[in-house]
From TrEMBL:
Pfam families reported for this sequence: ImpA_N (PF06812), VasL (PF12486)
Organism, as annotated: Tenebrionibacter intestinalis
Name listed for the protein in its UniProt record: Type VI secretion system ImpA family N-terminal domain-containing protein
Skewed-composition ranges (Low complexity): 224-233
InterPro entries associated with the record: ImpA_C (IPR021069), ImpA_N (IPR010657)
Amino acid sequence: MMDAQTISVAGDPRGYAETDQIRDEMAKLTHPARPDVDWRRVEQCCQALFSKNGVDLRTAVFYAVARGHRAGLAGLHEGLSIIDVLVCGHWMQMWPQQTHTRMELLSWLTGSVLQRLRALTLSYADLPLIYRTEACVARLCNALELLELKQLSRLEQIQSWLQQAAATLEQTDASKGITQEAAPERAPCVVDTVSARGIVKKAPPVILPQTRKARAPTKKSMTDAGRAGDAAAPAPNRRAGFMAGFICALLLAAATGAAVWWLARPAPAQALFDNVALLPVVNGSADAQRFQKSLTPKALENAREDWLMALNKKLTFLAGLPALWRQTQGDALLSQADALWPDTPAVATLRARERQRRESLALPAAALENWNLAQQRLARLTERLNALDERRGRWLTGSELKTAVFDIRQALDKTPPLEELLRQLAVQQAQGESAVALRKQIDDRFEQLLNRYALLTEKAPAQPRDLSEQ
């Protein structure tokens, strides 16, 4: 059993072999031959993914259904508890990220859980577990209602079924069970429960929520009705039947298309949060080793062409990003916050904090003047040397020349150009040195220049100072 309170959120699980095994078992549900699903294997594969990759929504849904088939209501409660923690506490981080895919998974979960619940025969002793399961589903419904996704998930159907089951069981005696009457479309199913010692016990049957029971017709009424029907039945109209079937098919196709469009459209609240979702982080070598271990050589070979095409598109996209992409994205999000919640102190605080962060990381404004200062001092020295040719008898002493050269070099050494840092890096690499400190200095300089560039684009550039007198 897995502790729902200590889960770790996972990324994409499709790189693991267990995912393929789960997909193969789930495909049996729609196979024409209807082979039996190995729910024990599905459960074990889900647990393996939880330990290797963490918990994602799709694996958690399959795990909940598998536990429901193997452990009944207790298993369903365990699986739904994991989904509850995942949805309520990690909605922004959990995989998959697409909202319509999440809703398709939860909708499929609802249908599978309801099918399993209707096959169970519960007793009065199951009331506490029903209460806990209903509370878990209620938390899920409340969380999805805040995101305007409750109707798409259909989870309220599970909640309603559990509430009706609890109300029915509350009316029974604790020491007696009442048999659930078989519905016309399916026969009752008795589920064995396993105690802590491994002893299989038969749970007493109980009446679960169902439709009103129809009274069985008598032989005489059936005979009379048959005669009356034979006498009054008109000749079948085949054209009308064909047109009715054709119209029904059109309506069904239209309803299916509308449902697909509705599921694919992003919810307004979720679209709002998509703008501030974290960007995925790629760890190249570690991810490659993980994929090599989890995928077969044949699977890697089959995915090579499509993956390289997708990589080419992403590299083209990254190459087209402007230098200030990070800063402009941050400014756009802050402007969006100002438009959505004007005059909000929290938004003003975020904007001031971002401005302060850029100021602290940017190249100091005084450092922008050092190279220009050195050039101006060189120009002054050149003018003085040229003036000596015009005024004979006037000489520049060695001390004055040394002082002028020292001032020039001091201005240049304060802020060496980025080109000079790159030249020094090339020299150290040619000599076989590690150059760790120099690399850090170059990275910091790039970051400082970009932040100073971003600050200068926000306002009109100030007039340069006249440094001729310095």
